[in-house]
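ugh finaly. both done.
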Amino acid sequence: MTKPALIDSGIPDKMVSTDKLFGFKWHMQVPAFSTREEHVPDIDPDYKFEPEVTRGILAGFAHNRRVIVQGYHGTGKSTHIEQVAARLNWPCIRVNLDSHISRTDLIGRDVITLKDGKQITQFQEGILPWSLARPMALVFDEYDAGRPDVMFVIQRVLEAQGKFTLLDQNRVISPHPYFRLFATANTIGLGDSTGLYHGTQPINQGQMDRWNIVATLNYLPPEQELEIIVSKVKSMAKQKDQLKSMIAMANLTREGFMNGDLSTVMSPRTVINWAENVVIFNDVHLAFKLTFLNKCDENERPIIGEYYQRCFNNDILGQT
């Protein structure tokens, strides 16, 4: 079998320290690129990094570890990986493993093209062999929602030096020395017993065992969540007492979910949306209805109304 040359579109040419880029000190120096290219994510200057998760992701970049970040929805798992890559100037692309992603999307397919006025069949490589040959961070979102046939394709490259064989092309692709693989998941491969994440499924434990690092990113302490919301919705910076009540409301829904009382939970993303809608409507109660309450099961709304009464001393269900 032939072995194609790697794409050398640049390699990390400097080492950076974590205190300047991520706001905490760590013993590890991390490789980075001096220049940015089109696949490097944009930097969000207001992004707040969770130190433990950031260390896990940085270890993936520095030591070629396979890293999966799991946790509840809306906590910023994919964004966390992207923002680390952005500060390292590391090219990064995301693939959502929904039900429409097939093996041919990942591997490639034969396509008919015109050349010199004649129809010819050419192989168009998929995202996996394309990424493998480059200094690229490939992120599989919703990893626990992938179809079984797709998951077995991914399993081939989970080993750090795992080669990828294109049987139809008689080619073996060795991963670029600076190819990196990440994933995000709402569950950790054991399936979903809550009913919150429809479409997820148990993952072959032989495959899960190939992930070197499993980081958990769940809901942050209220003071950290407040910092994030203020950084995202700066016009509410002077309304911190109201924001604290909004976060308290969100935490009650999270506790209710953990206890099995609610099936719908307010993620940090939901609270940010709520704050943005407060600015638009200039009415925290209307914004809550339009952001969250109208999504909830009718049978669970009395519980949510009780939580809201505690946080805002307002009968949200009695409003018209």
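ok and the 2nd:
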Amino acid sequence: MFRALVLVIGLLLHNSCNNKAETKKEKKEEPTPVSLRSTDYDLLKPVKGWALSDSLAEISGITFLKNDRLIAIEDLHPILYELKFDDSTGTIVNKLEFRETDKEKFDFEDLAAVGDSIYALWSHGAIFKITKQKNAYTSERTKTWLKKENNTEGLAYDPLSGNLLVACKDDAGLEDEKKSTRAIYEFDTRVDSIKPDPFMLIKKSDFENVAGEKIDFYPAAIGIHPVSHDIFIISTKDTKCIAQFSHDGKLKAFDYLEKEMLPQPEGICFDKKGDLYISTQARHGKPAYIYKFSLKTN
């Protein structure tokens, strides 16, 4: 009887230890929050998605025109692609060449529409102002003091100032800032030049309070919400994510992007209602896509 009692007690102690070990193990495997403060959009559930043709495999920028048509640009050619959407495909309905393609090499990164003009951003800091002259489109190239090292990749129209915001993916152009700091500059459309002081700075440590960790952030696209004027910036190198800032540059929210859906996101814009559009380049046998996202409903 005593021997049987000892055996029962031993089994109970053994099971108790195992349960404690499993509980500890479960606690260790609990995932950290995706974000402490998430953005206003449900980025896991697009309202629509449109596959693009091979011509836009390297799509790098998107924006809406006044007639609500969306136009896109890809890296290597000075051509604007006007798109029309059906249920699942974005069809090119017009190609607008704004510069001779055989005389220069290009690396276009983003687009912005200002009134009847369209601006295209080159990765070395130059900005092309594109206008329609009779039946053709022409462009004027403006060199800025931003260079290859700054790697300018994001361009957006700011309705509050009438100027353009230019996002630097790499060097912030400031001697006293850390290498991880990123800068957004303002291009004055009245005098066609970039202001010397940054419009806003993005620092690695800023993300701790909203993402739960420090983030290596490399701006690849920038868009401004038409109503709130919040600034949304996509990072696509290393960490694929999106950050939401107030117009005065304070970080409000952050989300990681879904890599299978958005393997190389490099374009962002809003329609008049505030719906969000993100474009991604073709990767892993999947064509380039544009996705539409709506505000979260609580």
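summary for the 2nd one i guess: Confidence is low (pLDDT under 50) at residues 1-33.
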